[in-house]
């Protein structure tokens, strides 16, 4: 697929899932992950040096996950997404929030140094040229402002760390082994067979119907850090964590949460 085709494919797929996004993403919409996210965003807002009343661009806002936390933290938010369905949903939830339609490639409609923070959560792996988007995010951030990238898999995940493999192998949903539950779910779901056929045509096809950068070209944190450094941003904080899913066996998660990780959040700050 060409880049334009991929962007349109992802836009249409997310339009379709917008209204059920929160229900199907149990790895995002659960108490533990929401608490971690709020704490992390609070740290990012506190790190802003460009304004006492931060104005934030939420890139790939989806159902308004970051937007809600940022509003609670006192920020003024512009919620941006490629999906009309998501933007309509955010307008309903937060009538006072300004929305912006993304083109999936860049932020050319937005002037330089317009925001105190550009934030994104679980988005970069959907963007064909994610480094270009990171460059654009850096451009629209003011000196002293913050770039926030969260909920992207770390090198530990891709390196097949043994401790992480052990965690996944032990983890169970409702006392049923993950692999068994997944097979039952798949074999009884007609959409699984449709997806399997589509993956034969394009290995990057995902369950929700969208396309991901990975696994053939997953985001590379080293490349992101090199790029941001060249554009005058420094790492303020970098944290790896083990993502929680509300379907997980909590006892197993608690056993591994301090010794295993699969996700990363990085706060960058632009030099003044």
Task: Describe what you observe in this structure.
The protein is of the alpha/beta class and 272 residues long. The protein has one domain: Rossmann fold (3-Layer(aba) Sandwich), CATH 3.40.50. It is 43% helix and 21% strand. The chain is built from twelve helices and nine strands. The protein has a seven-stranded mixed β-sheet with strand order 3-2-1-4-5-9-8, with helices on both faces. It has a two-stranded antiparallel ribbon with strand order 6-7. Strand 2, helix 5 (84-93) and strand 3 (98-101) form a beta-alpha-beta unit. Helix 6 packs parallel to helix 11. The protein is globular, with a radius of gyration of 19 Å. The relative contact order is 0.16.
Helix content: 40-55%
CATH homologous superfamily (4th level) name: Vaccinia Virus protein VP39
Q: Determine the structural class based on helices, strands and strand pairing.
A: alpha/beta
Q: What kind of sheet is the major sheet?
A: 7 strands, mixed
Whole-number tally of structural domains:
1
Q: How are the strands of the biggest sheet laid out side by side? A: 3-2-1-4-5-9-8
Q: What distance lies between the first and last C-alpha atoms, to the nearest angstrom? A: 41 Å
Topology record:
Layout: H1 3-17, H2 21-24, H3 31-47, E1 55-59, H4 65-72, E2 76-81, H5 84-93, E3 98-101, E4 115-121, H6 130-140, E5 141-153, H7 155-158, H8 162-170, E6 172-173, E7 176-177, H9 178-187, H10 190-201, H11 221-230, E8 233-241, H12 250-256, E9 263-270
Parallel strand pairs: 1-2, 1-4, 2-3, 4-5
Antiparallel strand pairs: 5-9, 6-7, 8-9
